[in-house]
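Running this now, will post back.
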Amino acid sequence: MSILLAAVPSSLDARMPDGPVHRLIFAVDIEGSTERTNPAKGELRRILYELLDRALEAAGIAARHLEPYTDRGDSVLVLIKPHDDVPKTLLLGQLIPMLTALLAEHNASVTRPELRMRLRAVVHAGEVHEDDKGFYGDDLDAAFRLLEAPRLKKALKEAAASPLILMVSEEIFHAIVEQGYLDDALFKPLVRVRVGRRQRRGWVHVPVALPLDRPAASRRPRSQLQSTPLSIAPVNGRGLGRSREQAEHRGGGLGVNGREAPPPELG
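Update: finished.
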């Protein structure tokens, strides 16, 4: 995958709405990246973007559904536009398990320990704003506070057999999990974080990997992976994202368990 570090297109201003827009918020963060050397960090970043592309494609989430990726060093923000063919259940029931499987496959195949990768992930939904520097808003703040919660980091360390641990916001839990689309017994209340004047709750889940022969697209050898230049989603003026034009030709449209949540995490 090539990365184009180019200026933000001047047409960006023309497409930015005046008010907030609703987006499905998905972000991942690499565990222990600060303990790696810079060359290892660079290789992990390349691998992470490759696995994200493969998981999204396998789940049927195409470039037309996405905002450009927002790069955050050792984490990536993926904003998904409202589409009937990309319901939240697709993200939770297909994308997350597929990414888990791809991570497990990668970790089993690498010989260098520093290139093994484990991820924390968060899924939330809400209103975001965009300016010429990138995306911002209270719901993004909430998602990243949940993603960076110390209790989630500890939970990933304790889930030693899994390469990925997922946090869902209370909005996702009540709208999707509690309604019976997923087994609520597999989601446990873990954290409360304060964002501004409001406390946000998060539920944790250890995903079960999907078999990599379903769908078959996820099994393409690395040498056959499409090399897709990345457009720019600015963060402090620079960023990463898929090129919509280059990726479009791929096609592909595509209970509360009765326990109290723990006290707030203020750090």
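The first strand starts at residue 21 and ends at 30. More later if anyone needs it.
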